[in-house]
Amino acid sequence: MSDRQPLSFHVPEPAVRPGGTPDFSHVSIPRAGSVRRPPVDVKAEDIRDLAYSIIRVLNRESEAVGEWAGLLTDSELLEGLRHMMSLRAFDARMVMGQRQGKTSFYMQHMGEEAVSCAFRKALEPGDMNFPTYRQAGLLIAGGYPMVEMMNQIYSNENDPLKGRQLPVLYSVRDHGFFTVSGNLATQFIQAVGWAMASAIKRDTKIAAAWIGDGSTAESDFHAGLVFASTYKAPVVLNIVNNQWAISTFQGIARGGSGTFAARGLGFGIPALRVDGNDYLAVHAVAKWAVERAHRGLGPTLIEYVTYRVGAHSTSDDPSAYRPKTESDVWPLGDPVIRLKDHLIARGAWSEDRHKQREAEVMAEVIAAQKEAESHGTLHSGPHPSARDMFEGVYAEMPPHLRRQRQQAGY
Amino acid sequence: MPRRTMVEAIRDAMDVAMARDDNVVVFGEDVGYFGGVFRATAGLQQKYGSSRCFDAPINESGIVGAAVGMAAYGLRPCVEIQFADYVYPAYDQIVSEAARLRYRSNGQFTAPMVVRMPTGGGIFGGQTHSQSPEALFTHVCGLKTVVPSNPYDAKGLLITAIEDDDPVIFLEPKRLYNGPFDGHHDRPVTPWSKHPQGEVPDGHYTVPLGKAVIRREGSAVTVLAYGTMVFVAQAAAEEAGVDAEIIDLRTLLPLDLEAITTSVRKTGRCVVVHEATLTSGFGAELASLVQEHCFYHLEAPVMRVTGWDTPYPHAQEWDYFPGPDRIGRTLKAVMEA
Fold first, then answer.
1. pLDDT given for residue B286 in this prediction
2. Secondary structure class of B88 (helix, strand, coil)
3. Which of A128, A134, B68, B147 could form a disulfide bond with B226, CB atoms 3.0-4.6 angstroms apart?
4. Which pLDDT does position B30 carry in this prediction?
5. Are strands B251-253 and B144-146 parallel, antiparallel or unpaired?
6. CA B198, CA A109: separation in Å to the nearest integer?
């Protein structure tokens, strides 16, 4: 007989479930401006603390403070605000469009607008993003027409992807936006490969990899870190920690210890953790990492601490697994409101102008929507030809596909 | 005409492709300095530098995933998976990504890349050095799958594969690396230097994808084979005294259906042979196509001689491997049907 106690099996649980009182008191939020800004050629081991802190610029008084502040002008900030507001309005209309049966599916960005919108402004022309399905801000802030995004979402006759792809899985090469895959994390290592290619060709372009907190558990996250580290690839490795992977809280992927940023340290990759709802902080950190990559100093890992305010997708109901009001108590607030308040504090904006801008932005989205709908929606109006279904599998259609296309009546 | 082993022909193909196109890069486990565990990349790093030919971490998904990213950038990666048995961690990148990049992006991004991997048994490789996973790739739309059977084809097909704008799975029967093999494991093996198909021209030439070739003309029965089985089938036909027409498919997808149907309509009989396991193997696709396109010409059921539906064993190598006796018995049975 053994005198050992039986082993117990541990399954991490979020602090609160539906019906409970939302509580983020366990999340440690450092003071804005308290984290230093190291030189871009810093060694990973000299900034280990940055992987466990949170870089923040905007304080409670809506002032930009600390070493990461001061990079953006009023007009750049107003432009950033506009991008975030456009993305939010776009989301609202597309969620409604899905409810109205104009498309089968949509995924919104509520609460995470600053991450992709601010990051996009740190890139240089020719750089390539390898996004997930929740970085449409890269397109909006890059000036890609919303009507083209909607054409894809509606799978209509003008869909750039010919109706082949699920809504929001955009592909826009000319805007540095790699084709989004439904298979999670695959793009993370591909971004590293793209960056390796740029270095092999002695090019000046860099890549940006994107992944969510849940998908860091995928094997390709590890592959991406190993290859980025081994070959010192010019890539920015972005982890958007929005606390939730559908119904699974981030503790399931994280293993209940450390931070996602800290995963970079074991690979010798400088790792930063940043307030994902602080447009100025996201931009400053992105700029730092992009500069490192462009100067051939190697990869950087960035964890954006944010919160997925909306449902995972239009097929999801978060009230089944988390308190309905949890987003209200999220300690990093709302990225749009925080930037608006900062601009007001700077004397560059006002509540009235903000309301006016909200109406303008919504009018733009609605106009784009009207135009997109004139080219059809999923179930009505013009749509891609069934003939298109057989194109593009290969560079040239092989005989068996020609036979199948004929069988299909085309 | 210079003579080369299949390994030397494959190395020569990469050498030729790298010399012609700066965008061709070669990498994989032990591929760089050491030149590969089968010597297929020997000398390439010295000749082209470590930015064109380099060692990779032991991570198959990483190797193929990085190659997809490089291909999306505009390079033409030719990567190696050390054994086909170890390709499974990369399966997601191959199936979900490389194969679909062109389709899902409507041609904005493409994956002009080759994934080379030694395949097949007959070498006492046991469970994880003997598998023939081609059916896992022929089932995937967007991929091309190639299996050469001799040095001349290996070089020409690999150059074509590297120059092809679509992802190609290039399966190299490692049993054939140093010489042809007819399944008679108790006899000495002839090296490629003594075999006419060991004649491999210097420089650039191509063998088209999607084109089969008749290795032995015959009138009694059509044998569809590829890789090592081409030689085993030839031995079986001679020893069984059956006038078989043996077709080396060379490319499994796209498939040379015309060569197959022309032959089967002539002979009226068909036997499919492959090393891979039977159930849902590529032979099932071949048998199905033959009955669909040649039904009124068939005088006997289409038969398959394949590996058994078991993992590839070690001690029972020659009971597992579809040798000339097994194939010969089936050829006779089909003739008597």
1. 98
2. helix
3. B147
4. 98
5. antiparallel
6. 60
SS3 B288: helix
What single string gives the DSSP state of each residue in B228-287? THHHHHHHHHHHHT--EEEEE--EEETT-HHHHHHHHHHHS-EEEEEEEESTTSHHHHHH
For testing contact with chain B, the best of A186, A188, A229, A397 (most B CBs within 10 A): A186
Q: What is the mean pLDDT of residues A225-233?
A: 98
Q: What is the pLDDT of residues A31-41, one digit of tens each?
A: 999 999 999 99
Interface predicted TM-score (ipTM) over 0.85: yes
Q: Smallest CA–CA separation between A194 and chain B, in Å?
A: 4
Q: Which of residues 117-156 of A touch B (CB under 8 A)?
A: 128, 130
Given CB atoms, is B25 within the 8 Å cutoff of chain A? yes
- One-letter amino acid at A115 equals V
Taking only the tens place, the pLDDT of each residue in B83-136 is 999 999 999 999 999 999 999 999 999 999 999 999 999 999 999 999 999 999
B293 inside 8 A of chain A by CB:
no
Angle (CA) B229-B231-B232 rounded to 5° is 60
Q: Is the pLDDT of residue A400 over 90?
A: yes
Q: How far apart are CA B10 and CA B176, in angstroms?
A: 12
Which chain A positions have a beta carbon within 8 Å of B259's beta carbon? none
> What's the gap in Å between the CA of A399 and the closest CA on chain B?
8
Q: Name the A residues in 169-198 with CB < 8 Å from any B CB.
A: 169, 171-173, 178-179, 181-183, 186, 189-198
Render B132-190 in DSSP notation, one character per residue: --THHHHTSTT-EEE---SHHHHHHHHHHHHHSSS-EEEEEEGGGSSS---S-TTSPPP
State residue A263 phi and psi, 5-degree precision: -60, -25
Run of H or E including B28: strand B24-28
Tens digits of per-residue pLDDT, A191-218? 999 999 999 999 999 999 999 999 999 9
Distance, in Å, from the CA atom of B223 to the CA atom of B287, rounded to the nearest integer, reads 11
Q: Provide mean pLDDT across the span A15-25.
A: 92
Partner-chain contact A197 B105, CB within 8 Å: no
